[in-house]
Amino acid sequence: MSAASAPTRDRPSPRTLLFGNPVVETLVAMVAVSLLTWGASFVGLVGLFALAPPVLLPPWTLVTSVYAHAGPGHLLSNAVVVALAGTLVSLSTTRLRFHLFFVVTGALAGVAHVWATGLLGGPTAVLGASGAAFALVGYVLAANPASGMLFDTLRLPPRVLVVLVAAVALGLTLAFSAPGSALVAHFAGAVMGLLAGRLRLLGVR
Question: What does pTM read for this prediction?
Answer without folding.
Answer: 0.86
